[in-house]
Specification:
heterodimer, A: mainly alpha, Globin-like, B: alpha/beta, Ubiquitin-like (UB roll), Elongation Factor Tu (Ef-tu), domain 3, Rossmann fold, 3 domains, six-stranded antiparallel sheet, five-stranded mixed sheet, 16 strands, 30% strand, globular
Chain lengths: 121, 324
């Protein structure tokens, strides 16, 4: 049986998803403030890394890098509701790309697995 | 066996080994982070040899065309010469060929083009006043059409280099310039694609170079150039661009003047972002170049992205003012 990453479409799917996902995140008033003033191209590269991980692809994400990368946002009030919003946008992106519901759930589970690291818990 | 050449060292590459790991094994320090082709920290440039396609996946095509690659994803099968960053340290002494004003504040400087001085229109070069005082200016000239280098220099309040170039430099003087760099230029990989280029002030300099380059390379899709200015007096090369618009069916010249009287022929009720969205209609497969005032460039970048442009198709060159 093929892996989640293969079923979704691998690197090609990451490239297709990243613009749609980032656009949704920037348009979402619950979380958009956290992206004010960031370099958009750098952010797109980070989003690609995140999507690759969430799609079950090859990645070097570690609990430590997740913690370090979000610590300054936790100080600014980042909490569960914001992580929920990100995962919701991720699901909506995949739905738009025609990914099967079961696979979307699997992606959401992977994204959820780093929640405690993101929120420094 | 494949090998790389780095800093005059020949380093053998085991089958399946990456350039990054081979260099690190030999004790060379190469900045790196994710090792999986995502963070782009280990960007290097090949000066000779064939770069495997996998090492350039996800890079902007302006980087690909200059031989940039990600060392962590590069498993060469044939000899490859690599460097960490483009050699930007070579300075050329060049003669000033012409020195004239395009409007009250903008100087057009044409410089002799040194042998082997390769560049893409829209890239920028640095002009050095003294050893430690240099400023970057975008190239409006096109290799293959122009045998000189053309820069547009706006007089900056208290600008150390711009005032010097305006007031103290003249034809036949010698200037010191450094190799061209930057990723904001045309690549001929999608000749049917619609292009929208917006420049404010001397942001016109790179985009006029990019437009002339695209036309020279037979770009067939629509090309829209928008020159944004505070006042009508701030526009320049207006007639040249109107002539270009007349001569090429696929090229359209637009102006966007922020403060003009309502009865002036160049009065425009639209703001620059409205104008670009109006011209763009569907931005899904549109290539966009934004040059000039950094706040405006960054905000236009976001506007265009949110309206449907793909980030990989947006080339931005914010003109950051120097503080020293």
């Amino acid at each position: 049986m093929s892996s989640l990453y293969e079923r979704i479409g691998g690197q090609g799917a990451v490239d297709a998803a990243v613009d749609i996902f980032y656009r949704k995140v920037l348009a979402d008033e619950r979380i958009s403030d956290y992206f004010d003033g960031v370099d958009m191209e750098e952010q797109i590269n980070k989003q690609k890394g995140f999507l690759t991980m969430a799609f079950g692809g090859p990645n070097e994400y570690t609990g430590k890098s997740m913690r370090d990368g979000h610590a300054h946002l936790v100080e600014r009030g980042l909490n569960d509701s914001h992580v929920d919003a990100v995962i919701e946008n991720l699901g909506a992106t995949l739905q738009e790309l025609g990914v099967a519901a079961a696979d979307i759930q699997e992606v959401a589970d992977i994204a959820n697995s780093v929640r405690d690291d993101v929120l420094s818990r | 066996m494949a090998y790389i050449v780095f800093d005059d060292d020949r380093i053998d590459i085991e089958p399946g080994q990456t350039v990054l790991s081979a260099l690190l094994d030999q004790g060379h320090y190469i900045p790196h982070s994710c090792r999986s082709g995502i963070c782009q920290t280990c960007l290097m440039q090949a000066t000779d040899g064939e770069v495997p396609a996998a090492a350039q996946a996800g890079l902007k095509n302006t980087l690909v065309s200059q031989g940039y690659f990600l060392a962590c994803c590069c498993k060469p099968e044939t000899p490859l010469h690599v460097i960490t960053a483009p050699d930007k340290n070579i300075r050329h002494a060049v003669n000033v060929i012409s020195h004239d004003l395009l409007n009250a504040h903008v100087l057009r400087l044409r410089l002799e083009r040194p042998d082997n001085f390769d560049y893409h229109p829209g890239q920028f070069l640095t002009v050095w006043k003294e050893d430690t005082v240099g400023r970057s200016y975008s190239l409006a000239s096109v290799p293959g059409i122009d045998n000189y280098l053309e820069l547009h220099i706006r007089r900056m309040p208290n600008g150390k280099v711009s005032n010097w170039l305006h007031d103290d430099i003249d034809v036949d003087d010698v200037l010191h310039v450094q190799a061209a760099t930057g990723n904001c230029f045309y690549t001929p990989d999608a000749p049917e694609q619609k292009m929208i280029l917006a420049g404010t002030g001397t942001g016109l300099s790179p985009i006029i170079g990019i437009v002339r380059d695209a036309l020279q390379q037979q770009h067939r899709g629509e090309i829209h150039l928008v020159h944004g200015a505070m006042k009508t007096d701030d526009l320049y090369l207006h007639q040249t661009l109107q002539d270009l618009d007349q001569r090429h069916n696929q090229f359209f010249y637009h102006t966007n003047v922020l403060h003009a009287d309502e009865d002036h022929p160049l009065y425009d009720a639209m703001s620059l972002d409205q104008k670009l969205l109006h011209i763009g209609e569907d931005l899904t497969d549109c290539r966009i170049f934004l040059c000039g005032d950094p706040n405006l460039v960054n905000s236009l970048k976001k506007t265009m992205f949110m309206a449907g442009a793909s980030m990989k198709n947006i080339y931005a060159d914010p003109f950051i003012a120097a503080y020293d």
